[in-house]
Design a protein that fits this description.
Length: about 325
């Protein structure tokens, strides 16, 4: 899959293509439906499929300080899109100047002049251009002038028999913030993932017999609510069952919020400086301060046992 950053990266000889545009944070099941349809139609038409997205999130430029927590960094989104069969991802730097581009100018500059769109696939609530003035209706009307068609895909919804809320990144962020990892996974189609570099912490886990990887998460990452979780620690392509702690470590009067993962039954791991990923499968308990270190150790042993059970049950199916 080709990855471009900015319009200047698009090959000069790029031909017609099927395009879909959006932030696509998390590449959740609603996004997968739209992107999958774009890939399907591109193959039918014999042209490449292109996903156009933005960096930073448009809200950070339009309303500085309002950047939403991110469900997936751009490289992870690209991986997920590649798995769906996308041929190219275009990341457009979202600047103040770009935010002022009128909807019609956006269509000409991006869809017509550079990507030579033959077909554009979007959800019904797609908005674009200055002050989000552009919508699906305008996109369709301009298609008659610029020789492309528009196909609108209704988004899936959560719940039995199609009931409930539509799949959305906003809803997923809320569920992650509440620690509802099962609800988030229902929308994402997989466990929520947090990534970062392993850094040195206070090393209390090692002293207590439960050495953890202290993950310095990427900026704006959507971090689950404080507590203990079952999940996986991904290192160099290997997924290791893990007990994960999120919080300020109240047992030792900590103030900095951290994500720490204990690789269950793994001894002698040296992960400092490595980029790792942590998948959150299930919430186990809230973050507590115990009366003694002995009580903490008993709780940690119980946590590890419970995490192992939850992971084994998930793996079985």
């Amino acid at each position: 899959m080709q990855r471009w950053r900015g319009l200047e990266d698009i090959p000069q000889d790029w031909g017609r293509s099927v395009v879909t545009i959006g932030s696509y944070d998390g590449v959740h099941r609603g996004h997968q439906l739209i992107i999958g349809r774009a890939v399907e139609r591109a193959r039918e038409l014999g042209v490449p499929s292109v996903v156009v997205t933005f960096d930073p999130h448009p809200s950070e430029v339009v309303r500085p300080g309002s950047h939403p927590p991110l469900l997936a960094p751009h490289h992870r989104r690209a991986e997920l899109m590649a798995e769906l069969g996308v041929d190219a991802v275009l990341i457009l730097p979202f600047t103040t100047e770009f935010s002022k581009l009128a909807p019609a100018d956006f269509i000409v500059k991006v869809l017509v002049d550079k990507l030579h769109a033959q077909l554009v696939i979007e959800g019904p609530n797609f908005r674009f251009g200055h002050k989000a003035a552009g919508n699906v209706q305008l996109l369709t009307e301009c298609g008659a002038t610029y020789d492309y068609r528009v196909e609108v895909i209704d988004l899936r919804v959560r719940g039995e028999a199609g009931g409930g809320e539509p799949f959305s990144s906003t809803l997923t962020r809320r569920l992650v913030a509440e620690g509802d990892m099962a609800g988030a996974a229902e929308i994402l189609g997989r466990p929520h993932r947090v990534e970062g570099i392993v850094v040195r912490g206070a090393q209390r886990g090692r002293e207590l017999g439960f050495p953890t990887a202290n993950v310095e998460t990427l900026p704006h990452t959507a971090i689950p609510a404080d507590g203990v979780y079952a999940g996986w620690l991904h290192v160099d392509g290997e997924a290791m069952p893990a007990a994960i702690s999120v919080g300020t470590n109240p047992q030792f009067d900590g103030t900095e919020r951290t994500v720490e993962a204990y690789a269950i039954d793994r001894v002698g791991l040296d992960l400092y400086g490595l980029h790792v990923a942590v998948d959150f499968l299930a919430y186990v308990r809230g973050m507590l301060k115990f009366d003694s270190i002995d009580d903490l150790l008993v709780a940690m042993a119980a946590d590890v046992k419970r995490c192992s059970e939850l992971i084994s049950a998930y793996d079985r199916g």
